[in-house]
Amino acid sequence: MKLQPMVGRPVSRLEGKLKVTGAARYAAEYDVPDLLYGYVVNSTITKGKITRIDVSAAKALNGVLEVITHENRPDVASVDLKYTDMDAPPGVVFKPLLDAEVKYNGQPLALVIAEDFETARYAATLVIIEYQEEPFETCLDHNLEKARKPEKGLATMLKPPPPPPTGNFEQAFKDSPVKVDSEFRHGTEHHNPIELFATTTVYEGEGKLTIYDKTQGTVNNQLFVANVFGLHYKDVRVLSPFVGGAFGAGLRPQYQLYLCVMASLFLKRNVRVVLERKQMYPFPHRPQSYQRLRFAADANGRLTALNHLAISEASQFEDYVETVAQWSHKLYPAPNTLFEYKLASLDLFTPLDMRAPGGVTALHAIECTMDELAYEASIDPLEFRLRNYAETDPVTGKPFTSKALRECYMRAAKQFGWEKRSPAPGSMTRGNKFVGYGMATGIWDAYQFPSRVEAMITQDGKLVLNNAVTDIGTGTLTVMTQVAADELGMPMENVTFNYGDSKKPFSMFQGGSSMTASTGVGIVVAVKALKKKLLKKAKDIDGSPFKNVSGEDVAFRDGSIFLRRSPSVSVSFQEIVAANGGRPVKTTNMGAPHVLKLRKYAKATHSAAFVEVEVDKELKMITVTRAITAVAAGTIINPKTARSQITGSMVWGISKALHEETILDEKLGKYMNQNLAEYHIPVHADINELDVIFADERDDLINELGVKGVGEIGLVAMPAAVANAVFHATGKRIRELPIHFDKLL
Length: 745
Ligand code: MOS
Prior knowledge:
24% strand
């Protein structure tokens, strides 16, 4: 029997049944005995000081055990560094219940703990808080003059600041015959995962905790809890096997974790804290942004000058940064460049990575500006991109490890029918609708983090793998099982991948579309080492036929090692484990990016999105009737889960372009639409035909698996493609997102 490789097959997700039957447990669903429930009291002002906090009525209520405030909270770490998680930006981390100061609207000010959730929630309404209010600023657009360079910090390793200028931008811009100068504005967006942020803390005895937390990073939160509450790392275990969406909101420890652990240690009891939807708005979010782009080209449509200024919001305590300003020069060569990135501190909570952070903000502006420039130059928008195609990295001149963007353009354009487009705005109609075709390019990094994997063969001859990574809904469990099965030549049903547990070997948080590369490579490295060990153990068996053979002489298949030259000579994994005294044969190894080798190359994933919209001639209602995204992301391990990632991202792209925005009232300093009824996201009726193409991109350099990651790359090109299609339909350039019909009236 020959085993078919599993990599490349559209395997359905292994945990699918658990999820659709409700058997999968989420952070707030674990059955824990004698559980107490915490409910958070949030500030109703935006800035100032608490002058009085009266918890007596709440505490007097039957069933209420305690109300924790800044006045009675237990001690926590006083050194700022102890609060710094692996995704913390430069600054001083916000500490709930630290003192009487209020720094943003909705800040947690007290935790009520009761025998049941309803009592805790009711008691929270009885907590009386008086404030002394201070003036505040929350609107980016009215505070652009405050913008300044961000603080430097660790975060700049993953999100480098813009490179220094090249050539002479101002002169080149002035001298170029074709130019565009445009401003773009984005409102706030919130992640809004379906699973509410929640923590269940099990008090295991003095200083020992088991924590079920909604997070993208079990180890990140384990270290945070241990550091902040002065516990031993090994005494804190964070579990998060199932995550109901996160999109970046779960990259950093959120305040319900902190408060839940604090209550558990304070009362020496098991405690659960679940946030309500509205409590997840004064929270991490995609920042408001302002961008000004000035792009110029010569008479042949070759870019001469690129200037991109991006300003986004920071909190008063942390400088959250994104890579925004320099993306155009990773896609298009130009001799004169000037990129600037600035922050303005506002009285809001710190923003945080939200799917394709920085990239989707930037590419909307860049790709709309490219579209405008193509019109200025009277060149087809796709042709304009091809004329400015970067064969090597424009910034460094380095070759890409792989780049199948041209294939993305060509295949998507062909399938979409781009050649049928008549260029004049408003020239295509269907009944009482204008029809618009728009396209845009996408680019995202190809991240890989170190990941340690334990691989073992158990008594039954099966493969078990352990790693701390979470699966936030991306299909990680399935993909990792496929990779491991192929590496050991085993059917998938004989492979068990354990994950979502900080006790397992190290993984970074799941983010940046990095996990298939990170933990996938960890698995490849660990299973390769395991094979060596199995062969060595096979040689140790009395009378072993493998005594004098080397690694190249043997193959691993279906739970056995056999001689390549005479396949009838074999030993099963079960026999090897039996000869090992019944003890599993195991190894733990670290997979890591080949930093030195990759220094000679540039790396990125690419995409091209093509969108058709219909705009009602009178009512101006906008419908995305069809969209195609072609993605170049190296090897696609699982075309089914990968496709889901991309279509999900495309839906988000449509949503970002046409629907979603958190409305900030700058007089109150507060987000006003704090629920899913008023925070508009697409429903089925808003989404029509979506298709995904994976370019045939082979990358032998990037890592052992040739993967670059999918997810965020499906989002980056979409908002610009939609906005460009709206222009083609209507002749209107709407440079603020979301584009609502009233902007076209
Ligand atoms: Mo995502 S913003 O990489 O969690």
